[in-house]
Specification:
Layout lengths: L24 E2 L19 H11 L9 H18 L6 H9 L5 H6 L2 E2 L1 H14 L2 H13 L2
Parallel strand pairs: 1-2
Helix pairs in contact: 1-2, 2-3
C-alpha cells in the first residue's frame, strides 16, 4: 500500500488567490486599417510597412494608450532595421510583440480572447498574403549576409 505524505486534499478546495481584475480580455475586430504609419519614422522597407499595417489594425490596439503606440513606432523601426539586414534584432522584436499577444501562446498567457470571428478573418487575411513575395524578400535579405 503506497504511503501518503500529509493530509488528504480537501474535496471542496478552491483557489483563493484569484485576481478578478486580471480577467479574460474580450477583443473584437476593428473596422478599417487602423492608424496610419507616421511619415516621420522614415520607414524604408516593405516588411516594416506590413508590420505596422498588421499591428495598427490588430484587435489588441483597441485598448492601447499613447505609450503603446510609441512602443509600436520603436518596434517598427527595429523591424525596418531587421529587413535592412540586421538580423541580431530578431530576439528583441520577438520579446516586444510577445507582450502585445503576437502568438496563440502569448494571447493565452495574456488571457486574450478574440472569438471565432477574428480567427476566421485572420485565416482569410493569411490566404490573401502573397507568400511568394514574402519568401523572395526573406531570401534576398538572408542572402546578403
Amino acid at each position: 500500500m503506497p504511503s501518503r505524505r500529509g493530509p488528504a486534499p480537501d474535496p471542496n478546495a478552491r483557489r483563493r488567490n484569484v485576481n478578478h481584475a486580471l480577467g479574460e480580455h474580450q477583443l473584437t475586430p476593428q473596422a478599417g486599417e487602423g492608424r496610419a504609419l507616421p511619415e516621420a519614422l522614415g520607414i524604408a522597407t516593405d516588411g516594416a510597412r506590413r508590420f505596422w499595417a498588421t499591428w495598427a489594425a490588430a484587435p489588441q490596439t483597441q485598448h492601447w494608450l499613447s505609450t503603446d503606440w510609441v512602443e509600436l513606432e520603436i518596434t517598427t523601426k527595429l523591424v525596418d532595421e531587421l529587413y535592412a539586414g540586421n538580423v541580431r534584432l530578431a530576439g528583441e522584436i520577438r520579446q516586444r510583440v510577445g507582450k502585445w499577444g503576437a502568438t496563440t501562446e502569448d494571447r493565452a498567457r495574456l488571457r486574450m480572447d478574440f472569438g471565432k470571428q477574428v480567427e476566421e478573418e485572420a485565416a482569410k487575411a493569411a490566404q490573401e498574403v502573397k507568400v511568394a513575395d514574402l519568401d523572395a524578400e526573406l531570401f534576398k535579405m538572408l542572402s546578403e549576409n
